[in-house]
Each structure stands twice: as C-alpha cells, then as structure tokens.
Design brief:
By secondary structure, the protein is mainly alpha-helical. It is 74% helix and 1% strand. It has one domain (11-224, 234-426, 543-569): Sodium/glucose cotransporter (Up-down Bundle), CATH 1.20.1730.10. The two termini are 43 Å apart. Pfam families: SSF.
C-alpha cells in the first residue's frame, strides 16, 4: 500500500469489493433487457412489488446523508442526531403513504413537477422542475465527493481522479438499465450496508466498554476539553431532547420548537412527501396499495438505521486519535480529502477496529451507499429533465425512442456536472450542514405550495409559482445573512430557520395572491385536491380483503407507535 492511502487494505478486501462491483454491473446488464420504452426506463414499467420498492425507498436515502453525514453528526453532536430519523423522517414517511401517495399514483404522473403542472399550470411547473433539477445535481455532487473520498482513502489516488472513476461506475449501471437497475441495486445495497455497518457498531462499542463505557468516555472528554473545543457539553451529547446541540438554540423550549417545526415538519415533510427521488420508488410499484405501503414498509428499518450509523460516529469521537484531537479543537491531517473532518469519523473507525476481510465488506457497504444515493439523484434528474423540461418546453411530440435517448444523454451530462458540484461539498467539514441547507432552499417552499394546494382548492396557479420563488429566495436570504454574521446559530440551526422562514413566506404569500387571482374550476381538480377527489379514487378496492399486516392503516399505526416509544426511550 502506498503511504497516501488512509486504509491499509489487503488482497482479500479488494477481492470482496471487486465481486460486489461485478454484481452491480451484472444487475445493470440484466435490467437493460427489460427496458423497451421510456416508462420502463424511468418508472420500471410500474411493475415492482411493495417489499422491493419499500427497501429501495430507504436505500435510495441511505447514501451520503445517512452514512457519512449522520456519523459526522454523531461524532460532533451525539444523540440529538437521532431526531433526523424519529422526528425528521418516520412521521413524514407515514403521512406520505397514508395521505399523499394515492394522489401521486392515482393521477399516473411520471414526476412531482408533472403533478405541479396539473394542479397549478406551467409557471409553478417550470419553477419546480428547474429548482428540482439543480438540487439533484448539487446533492449528487455530495454523494460523488464522499464516494471519491473512499476511493482516495483506499487507493491513494488524487481526488480528481477518484471523482472521475467513481462517477464512471455509477453512470454505467444507470445508463444500462434505468430505474430498474437503480432499484434492484438499491435492494442489494441495503443488505450490504447493514451487513457491513452492524459489525462495525458492535466491535466499536466493545472496544469502548459498551454503552456505559461510551457515555463515560464522552463525559470525560467533555470535562477535559480545551478552550478551543467547539464540542457541546456531555449532557447535550448524551440526551436526544431538548437537543440544543442540534438546533443551535440556548433555550430548551426554542430548541424543541425548532426541531419539531423546522426539522420535524418543514424540512422532513418537505423532503419525504415532495422529493421525487423517494416518490419515484413508490410510483414504480404494481398497485395503489403497494405504492401506499412503500414508504410505510420503509419506515420500519428506517427507525433502526441510527443505531448502525450515528452510534459508530459517537464511538469514533472517543476512540480514534485524530477524531479526539479534532473534537478538542485541533486540526489533524490524513483524512479522505486531506485534513481530517467529522466526515471521516466512520472511515477512521473502520481503519482502527475492523480486521481484513470485514474491512473489505465495510468498504463495499460504503461504496454501495454512495452509489445508491447518487444513482437515486441521477435517475430522478434524468426523468424530470427529459419529461418536464425537454419534452415540455424544448422539443415536443417526438417518438418515445427519442426521449429515451435524451434520458440517457441527461444521465451522462448529470454525472459530468456532479464531478464539478462535488467540489462545493468538499468545502464542508460536515456535509449534513450543507445538505440541510439545500433542503431548506428547495424542499421547504415546495412542500408549502404542495400541501396548501392539495387541501385548499381556492389556491390559484399564480400563487403556485409566486410562492415557490418567494420561499426559495427567502431561504437563501436567511442563509446568506447568517454567513455574513448578521446573526449566529450553531449546529444545523441556520438550516432549520431558513426552511421555516421559506415555509411561512410561501404560505402567507400564496394565500394573499390566491385571494386576488382566479382559481381553476373545481371540475379540473379531481385527483389533485383532497376535497374534490372521491374516496374510491384514493384507495385500492381490494385492500379491505387483505389480512391486517398487508393493509396500509394498521402498518402505519404500528410504525407510529414504535417511533413514539423510541423518542421517549432516548
């Protein structure tokens, strides 16, 4: 191994990674055989069962956000990071399945922007399609940057070479098989990720003396911290509520409000209910019942993911020498991108505690996670670009083969652009901060427009695009004000505040504009507005005959009860 490598892998580790890549590319080749038209490429022909789309739903999100971002948060902030799952994910996933999925699936739209087109017309559709496409290119860059960091850590290659190689691998299997290749790979990747991170968690906890040993070491490190340390007090790291370390508020009450409203409502519902990366997986299922159950099935593994993602980050912060120095205010070198950052918490823990062989499995798991995340971004981008931008506004009325070619070209273009947007992500010590900022810009105003338009039939097409633009600009203004030093919030507080402001501005402005502009006729809103959509259009007539464990509402009720118990337990 060269001295430039971070991870000292052996031939066995490389063999395991090579076998895994062989499976990934093989799935892409097999999926290509089933791609005969654009619906096959972009939506898997709407033919997949709920358990497949449910696991893909989670795996698509189990990329850079979950693995490196959440372990970085765990190392830096501790247990309050659990809120991203139990407050900031599961409730919104259940709402998507129970309330919103019937509108997506029943209207037979191919993307979230297409739904916006039917509800609000071309203005809101164009704004949403462009903002979504830009967001996917930026977020794909995050996944690619972290994937390239793994390649650099493993092989010692320069970061730009690692970016190109990592991008080429992801590009190959999406271009071959479209969404089916992405989804079946995501199911495989889910199991690989769990199989690699669970041993890392157990071995790491064993090294620090179990959960009690971990809490003692965090308390001791906090007591001995130097004045240069920016780590929160031990009490804040070891208790999920009220979560001041995460929200940035000194007041426990304001912290709880910020987490519940900013993260739990605006950012969470904005992401899970309107982000086409996730919704696209449910829309690939074979019935409205399966589409509704997709996010609900995904909620069960989702609530336990933090134990194999956040806990290793917390272990790394008290066990790995470089992480201990970083948390105490130092600037160690030797991370995946040069200087050690919180993003390196998991990689450095793998280096220190995993034996060869298991190390190869863990590396394959991380590569799987980043490819899953980037593939999800790229496959969502190529759908929106091809249908919602190119076909709608540039070249109408061409053959299906033509738009299929455009989709594949868009995939190549997006991958090349992601190599450049990855440079932005590399500038952040904790990618979770960057990602939450992006979600505040793009998802929060979209959710405000979406939820108001779905439940208030008086909302007008003009209000749709005006609210979206104003919400996005207000979120950017809050973020830039914080960057200029106008006010200061630690943790992810600025992202929570920007998202909350975007939501409120969008809602208020949409109501005002709606009251002075003309709404669409009620007969055009069937399938788009709750009050104008008959119950039979929102449910599967066969679901009542299913046993309870295959019905949407009972599964959602069980998941909600479990996540409430977890919130109280921690």
């Amino acid at each position: 191994m060269g001295s430039d490598t971070l991870i000292d892998a052996t031939w066995l580790d490389y063999l395991l990674v090579a076998i895994y890549f062989g499976f990934v590319l093989g799935i892409g080749v097999m999926a290509r055989r089933s791609v005969s038209d654009s619906i096959d490429f972009f939506l898997s022909g709407r033919s997949l069962p709920a358990w497949v789309t449910g696991l893909a739903f989670i795996s698509a999100n189990l990329g850079a956000v979950e693995i490196m971002g959440m372990s970085a948060n765990g190392a830096q902030l501790g247990l309050p990071t659990f809120h991203y799952f139990w407050v900031g994910a599961v409730p919104a996933m259940l709402f998507l399945g129970v309330v919103m999925m019937p509108f997506y699936y029943g209207s037979k739209v191919r993307s979230v922007p297409e739904f916006m087109l039917r509800r609000f017309g071309t203005g809101a559709h164009l704004v949403n399609a462009i903002s979504f496409a830009v967001a996917q290119l930026l977020i794909a860059g995050v996944n690619l940057a972290l994937l390239a960091g793994i390649v650099r850590a493993l092989l010692g290659w320069p970061i730009w070479v690692s970016l190109i190689v990592a991008g080429a691998v992801v590009l190959s299997y999406i271009t071959l098989g479209g969404l089916s290749a992405a989804i079946y790979n995501e199911v495989l990747q889910f199991f690989v990720i769990v199989a690699s991170l669970l041993p890392l968690t157990l071995i790491g906890l064993n090294r620090v003396g179990g959960w009690d040993g971990l809490t003692e070491k965090i308390s001791a490190a906090s007591a001995d911290a130097s004045s240069a340390s920016d780590a929160p007090p031990a009490g804040q790291q070891l208790n999920a509520w009220p979560g001041e370390a995460l929200s940035g508020f000194d007041s426990p009450l304001l912290s709880v409000i910020g987490i519940v409203f900013g993260l739990g409502f605006v950012l969470s519902f904005g992401y899970w209910t309107t982000n086409f990366v996730e919704v696209q997986r449910a829309m690939a299922s074979d019935s409205i019942s399966a589409a509704r159950k997709t996010p609900i099935i995904g909620a069960f593994p989702k609530m336990f993911v933090p134990f194999i993602v956040i806990v290793p980050g917390m272990v790394s912060a008290v066990l790995v020498a470089e992480m201990i120095e970083l948390k105490d205010g130092g600037s160690p070198t030797g991370g995946a991108s040069g200087d050690v950052t919180y993003n390196d918490a998991l990689l450095l823990l793998m280096r220190d505690v995993l034996p060869n062989g298991l190390l190869g499995l863990a590396i394959a798991g991380l590569l799987a996670a980043f490819m899953a995340g980037m593939a999800a971004n790229i496959s969502a981008f190529n759908t929106v670009f091809s249908y919602d931008l190119w076909q709608r506004y540039i070249r109408k009325d061409h053959s299906d083969d033509y738009y299929l070619r455009i989709g594949r070209l868009a995939t190549v273009g997006a991958t090349v652009i992601a190599i450049f947007t990855a440079q932005i992500a590399l500038g952040y010590d904790n990618v979770m901060t960057y990602l939450q900022t992006l979600f505040g810009f793009f998802n929060a105003p979209l959710f405000a427009t979406f939820i108001l338009g779905m439940f208030w039939k008086r909302m007008t097409p003009t209000a749709g695009w005006v609210g979206l633009v104003a919400g996005t600009l207000s979120a950017i203004a809050v973020d830039r004000a914080a960057a200029a030093g106008v006010f200061e919030l630690s943790g992810q507080g600025v992202a929570f505040l920007a998202a909350s402001v975007a939501f409120v501005v969008d809602i208020v402005l949409s109501i005002v504009v709606s009251l002075v502009t003309r709404p669409k006729p009620a007969e055009e809103l069937r399938g788009l507005v709750y009050s104008e959509t008959p119950r039979e259009d929102r449910t599967d007539p066969h679901e009542a005959s299913y046993p309870w464990y295959r019905r949407t509402a009972p599964l959602a009720g069980i998941a909600l009860a479990m996540v409430i118990v977890l919130n109280f337990a921690f």
